[in-house]
């Protein structure tokens, strides 16, 4: 029994990791399909003044077979309006991280938001604008703290400031990420370090990536 328990745990961890990577793969595919239709990657849904109302995770619902849910949202109201906040509990399974503590309506799948990142507020990013290479730029990462899936909130990024803590992670210092080419990678954030992680976040910094993914 002493040998069996660790083996079972490893199998469960592997299954959770594979499930999460599949979620990320579907999210990345949805982002590409959105791009094909609209000519740019998804961004937060905003009002006429550019104020974010709903997350890009809501914007891609029609591309993850959730068009019926998408049509229930009032797109001209914020995520926490009396109407829209009732839909938080209907979070699609694709936004549930099987490797991390689960809370109703909260997701760990986020992008980086800020100058030079893929989810830069107020900018409609085309794939062609990711000049550092689609395979060298993070689209979506799995990391805490979790946020309401409909809320226009991601990981804040400022090239001139330290990165915020990314905790918890699926496995110690390792996490899963979808790159802009749709590939899924396991990132060891401790091994990569903050300097290299910044290079993966920025879409057009012009700096080479000097390491190989696992």
What does this structure look like?
It is a single chain. The protein has 214 residues and is an alpha+beta fold. The chain has one domain. Helix content is 26%, strand content 17%. It is built from four helices and eight strands, in the order αββααββββββα. It has helices at 4-38, 56-59, 67-70, 189-201; strands spanning 45-46, 52-54, 106-110, 112-113, 138-148, 155-156, 174-179, 184-188. The strands form three sheets. Strands 3-5-7-8 form a four-stranded antiparallel beta sheet, with helices on both faces. β7 and β8 (184-188) form a beta hairpin. This is DUF1559 domain-containing protein. InterPro entries: DUF1559 (IPR011453), Pilin-like (IPR045584). Residues 9-101 form the DUF1559 domain.
Q: Rg from C-alpha positions? A: 17 Å
Low-pLDDT residue intervals, each spanning 5 or more residues: none
Strand content is 15-25%
Number of domains: 1
Lateral arrangement of strands in the main beta sheet: 3-5-7-8
Total DSSP helices: 4
Structural class: alpha+beta
Count of beta strands = 8
- For the record, give the distance between the C-alpha atoms at the N and C termini, rounded to a whole number: 32 Å
Secondary-structure element string? HEEHHEEEEEEH
**So what's the overall shape?**
globular
Mean pLDDT score: 92
Largest sheet: 4 strands, antiparallel
Into which percent range does the helicity of residues fall? 25-40%
Domain DUF1559: 9-101
Pfam family, one: SBP_bac_10
Protein name: DUF1559 domain-containing protein
């Amino acid at each position: 029994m002493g040998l069996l328990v660790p083996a079972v745990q490893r199998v469960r961890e592997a299954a959770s990791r594979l499930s999460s990577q599949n979620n990320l793969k579907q999210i990345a595919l949805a982002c590409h399909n959105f791009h094909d239709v609209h000519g740019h990657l998804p961004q937060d849904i905003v009002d006429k003044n550019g104020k974010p109302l709903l997350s890009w995770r809501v914007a891609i619902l029609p591309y993850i077979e959730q068009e019926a849910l998408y049509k229930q949202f009032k797109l001209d109201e914020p995520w926490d309006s009396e109407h829209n906040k009732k839909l938080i509990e209907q979070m699609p399974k694709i936004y549930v991280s099987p490797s991390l503590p689960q809370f109703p309506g909260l997701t760990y799948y986020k992008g980086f938001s800020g100058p030079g990142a893929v989810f830069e507020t107020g900018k409609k990013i085309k794939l062609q604008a990711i000049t550092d290479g689609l395979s060298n730029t993070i689209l979506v990462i799995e990391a805490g703290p979790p946020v309401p899936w409909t809320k226009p909130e991601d990981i804040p990024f400022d090239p001139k400031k330290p990165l915020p803590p990314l905790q918890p992670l699926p496995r110690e210092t390792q996490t899963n990420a979808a790159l802009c080419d749709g590939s899924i990678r396991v990132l060891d954030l401790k091994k990569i370090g903050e300097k290299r992680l910044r290079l993966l976040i920025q879409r057009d910094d012009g700096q080479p990536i000097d390491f190989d993914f696992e």
